[in-house]
């Protein structure tokens, strides 16, 4: 499934519009499964770039992974975008180390009804340390943090949409050393063990729960085994006093990441808070015009 990264003020870009003419060869350092075997497989992958690569990125940007073919229609490679989950200083403070969060995906052919593995996700999940992966980028200059630490950050995501927020939070507390504004994370997943970087296998984000300016809230599906989605919209409404105060504050920046479900549920909650669809549309337009609203959806 192609990733679409909206650049506010410009049309949505398709995968074919991204410049991949200067790829980098990265070496896979590690591939760690961060969900239990009873849940969907999600992995945290760390790549090392050569010292002379000159690959500079900021938290919130993405890379393209070029999965080698041959593929359908004679395509030499399959392109897929992934949000960078590490900070600019490198994963685990290792210079040149870039991490991404990958869910092993499958899709059903609309015509035949056959189930097929996702090309890039299975290529990455099957990769072993020492393997070489072609990447390109970085992309996504619209999804960057403000430089002023007095600003509020409202982050809303589902599934692997947690990746850029992991980078934000680790940069704020591990590298900057704190944040004066409010930092709020609202995150939805199918089950508690699919709370990426917040479950028993990997608790990276749990390390920051004691930070004065940071709070995280989670929403899970009421019936995960019936493929019901998370109750993210209800979670936002439960905290509507603070959420709406943040939305109304000119110092607040809003970030939505993950499946389109994240944007739909966020919009549903915002309409309820604003009082009407038109009222929320007007507020959202204001946020976009002031460059305080960004989406990173797929």
Secondary structure blueprint with pairings:
Layout: E1 24-33, E2 42-48, E3 62-68, E4 77-83, E5 97-103, E6 106-108, E7 115-117, H1 119-126, E8 132-139, E9 152-158, H2 163-176, E10 183-189, E11 214-220, H3 232-238, H4 240-248, E12 252-258, H5 260-274, H6 277-289, E13 293-297
Parallel strand pairs: 9-10, 9-12, 10-11, 12-13
Antiparallel strand pairs: 1-2, 1-8, 2-5, 3-4, 3-8, 6-7
Helix pairs in contact: 3-5, 5-6
Characterise the protein shown here:
With 298 residues, this protein is of the alpha/beta class. It folds into 2 domains: 15-139, Elongation Factor Tu (Ef-tu), domain 3, CATH 2.40.30.10; 152-297, Rossmann fold, CATH 3.40.50.80. Helices cover 22% and strands 29% of the residues. The strands form 3 sheets. A 6-stranded antiparallel beta sheet has the order 4-3-8-1-2-5, with helices on one face. A 5-stranded parallel beta sheet has the order 11-10-9-12-13, with helices on both faces. α3 packs parallel to α5 and α5 crosses α6. Residues 1-12 and 223-228 have low confidence and may be disordered.
Provide tags for this entry:
298 residues, alpha/beta, Elongation Factor Tu (Ef-tu), domain 3, Rossmann fold, 2 domains, 6-stranded antiparallel β-sheet, 5-stranded parallel β-sheet, 6 helices, 22% helix, globular, disordered N terminus
User: In oligomeric terms, what are we looking at?
Assistant: single chain
Mean pLDDT: 88
Count of structural domains: 2
CATH superfamily assignment of the largest domain?
Nucleotide-binding domain of ferredoxin-NADP reductase (FNR) module
Order of neighbouring strands in the sheet with most strands? 4-3-8-1-2-5
Largest sheet: 6 strands, antiparallel
> Element order, helices and strands?
EEEEEEEHEEHEEHHEHHE
Termini separation comes to 7 Å
CATH class of the largest domain: Alpha Beta
Tally of DSSP β-strands: 13
Question: Do you know the CATH topology of the largest domain?
Answer: Rossmann fold
Low-pLDDT residue spans: 1-12, 223-228
């Amino acid at each position: 499934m192609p990733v679409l990264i909206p650049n506010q003020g410009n049309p949505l870009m398709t995968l074919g519009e991204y410049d991949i003419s200067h790829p980098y060869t990265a070496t896979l350092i590690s591939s760690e499964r961060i969900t239990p075997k009873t849940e969907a497989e999600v992995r945290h992958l760390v790549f090392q770039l050569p010292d002379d690569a000159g690959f500079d990125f900021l938290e919130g940007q993405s890379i393209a992974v070029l999965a080698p073919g041959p593929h359908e229609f004679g395509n030499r490679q399959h392109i897929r975008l992934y949000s960078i989950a590490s900070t600019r200083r490198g994963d685990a403070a290792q210079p040149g180390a870039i991490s991404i969060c990958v869910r092993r995906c499958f899709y059903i052919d609309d015509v035949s009804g056959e189930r097929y593995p996702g090309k890039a996700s299975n290529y990455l999940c099957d990769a072993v340390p020492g393997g070489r992966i072609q990447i390109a980028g970085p992309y996504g200059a619209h999804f960057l943090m403000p430089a002023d630490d007095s600003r509020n950050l409202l982050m809303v995501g589902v599934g692997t949409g947690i990746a850029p927020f992991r980078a934000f939070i680790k940069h704020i507390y591990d590298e900057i050393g704190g944040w004066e504004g409010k930092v709020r994370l609202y995150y939805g997943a199918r089950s508690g063990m699919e709370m990426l970087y917040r479950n028993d296998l990997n608790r990276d984000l749990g390390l920051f729960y004691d930070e004065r300016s940071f709070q995280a809230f989670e929403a899970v599906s009421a019936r995960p085994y019936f493929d019901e989605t998370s109750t993210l919209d209800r979670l936002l409404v439960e905290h509507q006093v603070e959420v709406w105060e943040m939305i109304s504050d000119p110092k607040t920046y809003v970030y939505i990441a993950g499946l389109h479900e994240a944007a739909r549920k966020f919009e549903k909650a915002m309409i309820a808070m604003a009082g009407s669809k038109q009222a929320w549309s007007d507020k959202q337009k204001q946020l976009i015009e002031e460059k305080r609203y960004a989406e990173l959806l797929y």
